[in-house]
Specification:
Length: 385
């Protein structure tokens, strides 16, 4: 496995290309919080009042912090802090605050606090954690997903697999305050997710609707995947990575086993092109891809392999997971990355949801997890999640 990881340092070359590109990209995007790119390949901006609560707004800050770690260039740090400060407006919009508090404030406020000890950043992280904890439904032991969207769907009892990635905010808050409440909520949610979202074959549902008053399981939804009973690849990636993280922060082996169950299923579905579809169960004639899922699966597999290595368990599987992560990342590097200065994004062919009108475009969290995974390979990563 060591040999494979070193493999002529291809990932160091990739990181050098990322750094050289982003040194220029950040200069022409000062003050923005991007999600995607416009028709000219330039970042959009979600930092205005209308968009400040957009769920992906933490990823640009996280990417900047990783780039700061990679390069030592202060401009990445100052821009990351500017993003974090702009996001304070989100705290003033109750309906804009949702289960994605971890995605927003772990890569911004919490990592800033961990690196600099900044008290305001600590405060932001704790406010975000308290808001996330406030979404816990004691009747069903789950964290509520979105707020109502103003249409006829009642989402009060909805939980989604993505939320597993937000739990590290609660684990951090418990440790920071010496208060077990936050961790208890995270564990209760993770247990509910483990019991209800993971199918027998290791595939994962996206949305479950519980009765919010009794906690009874009502039904599941296809969500951002192809449909009910399908296997939305980013959802699989959130589960694989999210359960590995819950293992890291609790030491509960049931989460490690759940992450492995999902990983084994995911590995069995990946074709030898190493390109990831939007849904493992999309119709055979559909070729839609999602590079974000590929990057997140890769980063999650490295997390899982390292967890197994650290306890000396399942070495063969750990090697398989690491080898697959390398194959996915090398494929992205060779086939799905734009390292030119023409475009602001790195990853191409990212997809938000199967049934959206638009597919295969630039999405900021794809770039974030691609960089994070490469930096895990070369050991310089900042632990944000
Ligand atoms: N958490 C929403 C998504 O993965 O699109």
């Amino acid at each position: 496995m060591e040999l494979e990881r070193r493999d002529e340092n291809w990932y160091v070359r990739a990181l050098n290309r990322v750094q050289a590109k982003m040194e220029k990209v950040v200069d022409r995007n000062l003050g923005k919080i991007p999600y995607t790119t416009d028709e000219n390949g330039r970042f959009d901006d979600r930092s205005g009042k209308k968009d400040i609560c957009w769920w992906t707004n933490g990823f640009w800050g996280g990417e900047l912090w990783q780039l700061y770690r990679l390069s030592g260039n202060e401009k990445f740090k100052s821009e990351a802090i500017a993003v974090e400060e702009k996001m304070d407006a989100a705290f003033m919009d109750y309906n804009g605050m949702d289960h994605d508090a971890g995605f927003r404030w772990l890569p911004t406020a919490v990592i800033n606090y961990k690196l600099t000890g900044d008290k305001e950043s600590r405060n932001r992280g704790l406010l975000a954690a308290a808001n996330l904890a406030g979404r816990f439904n004691m009747n069903g032991n789950f964290i509520r997903a979105w707020n109502d969207w103003g249409d006829d769907r009642d989402t009060t009892g909805w939980a989604i697999i993505d939320c597993m990635m937000n739990l590290p905010l609660l684990y951090w808050a418990s440790k920071e305050l010496g208060d077990p409440r936050f961790k208890a909520i995270a564990v209760a949610h993770a247990d509910t997710a483990m019991k209800n979202f993971i199918r027998e074959d290791g595939s994962v549902k996206h949305i479950i609707g519980f009765d919010p008053a009794t906690g009874e399981y009502l039904r599941d939804y296809g969500g951002q995947g192809f449909g009910e009973g399908s296997s939305w690849t980013r959802g699989q990636s959130w589960a694989l990575y999210g359960f590995a993280l819950s293992y890291k922060y609790t030491g509960n082996e049931r989460y490690l086993e759940t992450s492995m169950k999902v990983a084994d299923y995911v590995l069995s579905e990946i074709k030898d092109t190493y390109l990831i579809p939007v849904d493992f169960r999309q119709p055979e004639n559909v070729t839609l891809e999602d590079s974000t899922a590929s990057a997140i699966i890769a980063s999650g597999l490295i997390e899982l392999a390292q967890a197994l290595e650290s306890i000396g368990k399942e070495q063969e599987k750990a090697d398989k997971y690491m080898a697959m992560a390398v194959n996915l990342l090398k494929t992205l590097d060779e086939k799905r990355c734009d390292y030119s200065l023409d475009k602001d994004n790195i990853l191409e062919k990212c997809t938000a949801a199967y049934h959206d009108e638009k597919h295969e475009f630039a999405i900021i969290y794809g770039d974030y997890y691609y960089i994070e995974a490469l930096m895990k390979l070369d050991g310089r990563v900042l632990t944000i999640f």
